[in-house]
């Protein structure tokens, strides 16, 4: 590095400066309205209390491949209709949850990066944040689903200075612990991993995609590769069966393989 990394004090001051510049009250109002009457995800008895959902527990995972042909069809539609890759994968996730839960009001937590700056971009820190994508389905064949999901994600990014943790604790939002504990997580893992080069040393990356414990009940990760993508579903096995991961991946892959034919034409 040509310059020293910012200190913790400098990083905090910069984060505070950006947060103070945001219209937080407008963002809080948006989240209160957006998440009003949000239902618990899944029917039947609660799978876990909030305390258990926030604790660490055993996990297992299931991974499938999105072929180059399927990915190319969606990417062409995304360019033509101006929606993002993450948007059509979120739509696939929401559709899979709808098929399993048999409910038309689906919500999930999406991992996003907090706003950056020259100072924060050069700091040794994490800028990960969580916020909620709520998807309300419009009939059995929701042809405008991907475009509405994309619009919802754009709204989320505009209101990202108020994290979900703050909204969950906001009495005006009215979110119960049972609802919060039921929300799954979505991660689009498009970060570039640069090889570590250490003079005089041999560096090797060791990856264990399924470490033994995880705090999340259900997480879907999209891992883009050069010409394809992987869908990795990770579950907490202390309150979700392994078959749930397989079923969820099956529905997501089916949505993607059906293609973006329902996307409306421009104009």
From TrEMBL:
SUPFAM superfamilies: CoA-dependent acyltransferases
One Pfam short name: Condensation
Domain of life of the organism encoding this protein: Bacteria
InterPro entries reported for this sequence: Condensation_dom (IPR001242)
Domain Condensation residues, every copy: 4-166
Transmembrane segments: none
Protein's recorded name: Non-ribosomal peptide synthetase
Organism the protein comes from: Micromonospora aurantiaca (nom. illeg.)
Native organism taxonomy: Bacteria, Bacillati, Actinomycetota, Actinomycetes, Micromonosporales
